């Protein structure tokens, strides 16, 4: 299966620069139906996008701005929001403007249709693909999975350790890897936590007796849950004046694989604003059929099945 990339991935590649070098190269791209990228400069009052191609200007007419625009199933914000950002397109032709300057006619809709037909519609649960975060909501992150086609990554599928908002893990524009969780009626849902490692892989980064950094995730009557890594949290003994979201210095008291328990003691907590860093992935393949989070000797199994048994 040929890969199609999120918008912005190819704009600065030698191949894209060569294809937009001059009108002859653009003619070749037009003939071959090649998907290119340029930066959208302006969205005019009719919601046509003016695109900088380097050698000339290009225009994406309103109806060619995205899949679903013609039918009214996609709002114009899908076009307006691309200003000052890379957009993908195919070249459909050339014409002279009122001043006699040659302008390339472009279609983002055609590029997305090609991506949908040759790439997205072939997805099955368990496929691992590249994505780029486009915006964040309290219930999840939206990500470009190819040529500006957007899918939802629900908040509970981002990591094993629970978070209050996706901004605790991602920033807009961050490149990530995701798993296709489900494909239903053309709607794609993503997952992410299966790529962040099993309990055993995460706990192997720590040892009893160490004092390490953590993030307070929840304060309960019986103890305080502290995140040691996105896919690993432990339970600390109760301590006064601790609130969720604080950074913490944590002493690791014990690690019990059979119960998937990490017992902690909070040494100190403090408030600190941080910008999420790129995720660390333990799984680097292109396909995952079954993910078992729990260790083999655990009293219970925690697993994700991406294929029907």
Q: CATH class of the largest domain, please?
A: Mainly Beta
| Unreliable segments of 5+ consecutive residues | none
Rg calc: 24 Å
The helix count comes to 5
Number of strands: 17
Total domain count: 3
Q: Name the CATH architecture of the largest domain.
A: Beta Barrel
Main β-sheet, in a few words? 5 strands, mixed, barrel
Word description of this protein:
Keywords: Ribonucleoprotein, Ribosomal protein. InterPro entries: NA-bd_OB-fold, Ribos_protein_bS1-like, S1_domain. Residues 126-193, 209-240 form the S1 motif domain. It comes from Caproiciproducens faecalis. Belongs to the bacterial ribosomal protein bS1 family. The chain is built from five helices and 17 strands. It has 309 residues and is mostly beta strands. It has three domains: 14-118, Beta Barrel (OB fold (Dihydrolipoamide Acetyltransferase, E2P)); 123-195, OB fold (Dihydrolipoamide Acetyltransferase, E2P); 199-270, Nucleic acid-binding proteins (OB fold (Dihydrolipoamide Acetyltransferase, E2P), Beta Barrel), CATH 2.40.50.140. Strands 1-2-3-5-4 form a five-stranded mixed barrel. The chain is elongated, with a radius of gyration of 24 Å.
């Amino acid at each position: 299966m040929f890969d199609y990339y999120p918008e912005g991935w190819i704009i600065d590649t030698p191949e894209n620069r060569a294809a937009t070098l001059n009108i002859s190269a653009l003619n070749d791209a037009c003939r071959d139906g090649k998907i290119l990228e340029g930066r959208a400069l302006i969205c005019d009052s009719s919601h046509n996008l003016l695109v900088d191609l380097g050698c000339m200007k290009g225009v994406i007419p309103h109806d060619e701005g995205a899949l679903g625009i013609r039918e009214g199933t996609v709002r114009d914000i899908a076009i307006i929001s691309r200003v000052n950002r890379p957009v993908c397109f195919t070249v459909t032709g050339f014409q002279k403007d009122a001043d006699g300057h040659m302008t390339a006619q472009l279609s983002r809709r055609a590029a997305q249709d090609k991506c949908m037909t040759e790439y997205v519609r072939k997805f099955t649960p368990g496929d691992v693909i590249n994505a780029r975060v486009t915006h964040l909501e309290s219930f999840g992150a939206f990500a470009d999975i190819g040529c500006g086609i957007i899918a939802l990554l629900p908040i509970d599928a981002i990591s094993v350790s629970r978070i209050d908002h996706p901004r605790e893990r991602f920033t807009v524009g961050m490149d990530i890897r995701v798993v296709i969780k489900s494909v239903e009626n053309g709607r794609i849902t993503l997952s992410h936590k299966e790529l962040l490692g099993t309990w055993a892989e995460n706990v192997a980064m720590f040892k009893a007796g160490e004092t390490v950094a953590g993030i307070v995730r929840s304060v309960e009557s019986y103890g305080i849950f502290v995140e040691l890594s996105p896919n690993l949290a432990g339970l600390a003994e109760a301590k006064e004046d601790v609130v969720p979201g604080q950074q913490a210095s944590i002493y690791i008291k014990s690690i019990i694989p059979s119960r998937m328990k990490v017992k902690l003691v909070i040494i100190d907590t403090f408030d600190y604003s941080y910008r999420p860093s790129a995720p660390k992935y333990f799984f680097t393949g292109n396909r995952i059929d079954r993910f078992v989070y729990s260790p083999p000797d655990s009293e219970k199994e925690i697993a994700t099945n991406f294929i029907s048994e």
